[in-house]
Amino acid sequence: MISKCLFPAAGYGTRFLPATKSMPKEMLPILTKPLIQYGVEEAMEAGCEVMSIITGRGKRAITDYFDISYELEHEIKGSPKEELLEGIREIIETCTFTYTRQNEMKGLGDAIYKGKVLVGERDPFAVILADDLCFNPKGEGVLKQMVKLYEKYRCCIVAIMEVPEEEVHKYGIIEGNVIEDGVYIISNMVEKPDVKSAPSNLAVIGRYILTPEIFKMIETTKPGKNGELQITDALCEQAKKGIVIGYKFKGKRFDCGSVDGFVEATNYFYAKDQKH
Q: What angle do helix axes 142-153 and 35-45 make, rounded to 10 degrees?
């Protein structure tokens, strides 16, 4: 049903300077795997086979990562280290990777619009922001949960979570009504509101399932906060028609776009790894 996943990965990652001066933030490792690999594995679990990545200048490492390194393979062939590449080999053999560039940083809405050439205009597709690392220790990954919900409702779906009031200004915030446990029909969305004007404390995080109509909505959306084209604003137009759902997902989310969240994720996965 959902066979393509779009990864906007053109941002500068300024909160991790100087490391991201020459290294994509999506390649920052949580233990031994880069953030973007966690996202790709989540997409694979959800049934996606085509990974479409929006890159930018200085992001060549992402393209190289999802390719064979003949010199490295030759060097470790037959040694115990060879098994360390089994996970990435499976990804390379199973998935098709497509790429295009976002030449200017004009917001997430613009990045997704750039992906139209990769995902097409006929089928629904998923979107994963790799620096939002999601993990469900008790079952299915977040995107797989959302794909099942899409099969039921056949409309745009955004992953949402409760955030402290003092953090609502960092997120797109939804207004909506519960239609079943953990599922909201969204009536309004506000990008990074002040706490006093926020309609709720339910924040949109980096998991989406979008229908092809989103591209027309983006075309007619005017730049919003910080002069950027926000996907929240485009989705808001669809929400007014009653065709956007918010899903309070099961699992944990780490904001690996921040140093605190990155360290939290590293500690969590290290402790989890030690138990095995």
A: 40
How many alpha carbons fall within 13 Å on the CB side of residue 102? 25
pLDDT beneath 70, residues of the chain: 225, 276
Please answer whether residues 189 and 175 qualify as being in contact, where contact means their C-beta atoms are separated by less than 8 angstroms.
yes
The angle formed by the CA atoms of residues 63, 67 and 70, to the nearest 5 degrees, is 130
CA distance to 17, 35, 158, 195, 226, per residue, from 259 (Å): 10, 13, 25, 24, 23
Are 262 and 253 contacting, i.e. CB atoms less than 8 angstroms apart?
A: no
Q: What is the pLDDT of residue 264?
A: 97
Q: Where are the beta strands (DSSP E) in 39-108?
A: 50-55, 96-101
Write the single-letter amino acid at 129.
L
Q: Which distant-in-sequence residues (6+ apart) come within 8 Å of 147 by Cβ?
A: 1, 2, 46, 47, 126, 209
Return the DSSP state at 7.
E
CA dist., res. 126 & res. 48, Å (int): 8
pLDDT the model gives residue 276: 66
Query: Roughly how many angstroms between the first and final C-alpha of the chain, as a whole number?
Result: 34
Residue 190 is predicted with a pLDDT of: 87
Q: What pTM did the predictor assign?
A: 0.93
Q: What amino acid occupies position 171?
A: Y
Token pair for residue 97? 């990777």
Q: Are 125 and 117 in contact (CB under 8 A)?
A: no
* Domains of the chain, start order: 4-275 (3.90.550.10)
Contact 100/54 with Cβ under 8 angstroms? yes
Residue among 160, 198, 184, 181 at smallest CA distance from 243? 184
- In the prediction, which pLDDT does 225 show? 67
